[in-house]
């Protein structure tokens, strides 16, 4: 995998509370992931981190930030030879 290739990470939050399908909910998840990474002495690579919306409601854009920088939103990516799309 090249340095600029996005990696795939599946994150499951088991807090018992349901996050709303909203920009605020997505930002909350990113903030918690950043907080946990820092607790373990890890740093999330902003250049490699991308976001993709998969929803039944097309056209709704969102913005997720990490360390004050907006993450790139993609419509597809390749993972282990398979093409993952937002459709």
Outline the structure in words.
The strands form 3 sheets. The protein has a two-stranded parallel sheet. The radius of gyration is 14 Å and the shape is globular. The chain has one domain. Helices cover 20% and strands 18% of the residues. The protein has one helix spanning 23-39; strands at residues 50-51, 65-66, 69-70, 72-73, 76-79, 82-85. With 87 residues, it is an alpha+beta fold. The longest helix has 17 residues, at 23-39. Residues 10-18 have low confidence and may be disordered. The protein has 1 helix and 6 strands, in the order αββββββ.
Q: The biggest beta sheet, please?
A: 2 strands, parallel
Silhouette:
globular
Tell me the radius of gyration.
14 Å
Counting structural domains, the number is 1
What is the terminal separation in angstroms?
25 Å
Question: Taking all residues together, what is the mean pLDDT?
Answer: 77
* Number of helices, where a helix is a run of at least 4 consecutive DSSP H or I residues: 1
> Which strand order spans the largest sheet, edge to edge or round the barrel?
1-4
Structural class: alpha+beta
* Poorly predicted spans: 10-18
| Beta-strand residue fraction | 15-25%
| Fraction of residues in helix | 10-25%
Order of helices and strands: HEEEEEE
Number of strands: 6
């Amino acid at each position: 995998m090249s340095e600029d290739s996005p990696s795939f990470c599946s994150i499951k939050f088991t807090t018992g509370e349901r996050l709303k399908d909203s920009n605020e909910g997505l930002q909350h998840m990113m903030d918690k992931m950043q907080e946990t990474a820092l607790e373990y002495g890890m740093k999330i690579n902003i250049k490699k981190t991308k976001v993709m919306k998969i929803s039944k409601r097309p056209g709704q854009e969102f913005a997720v930030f990490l360390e004050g920088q907006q993450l790139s939103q993609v419509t597809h990516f390749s993972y282990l030879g398979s093409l993952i799309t937002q459709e």
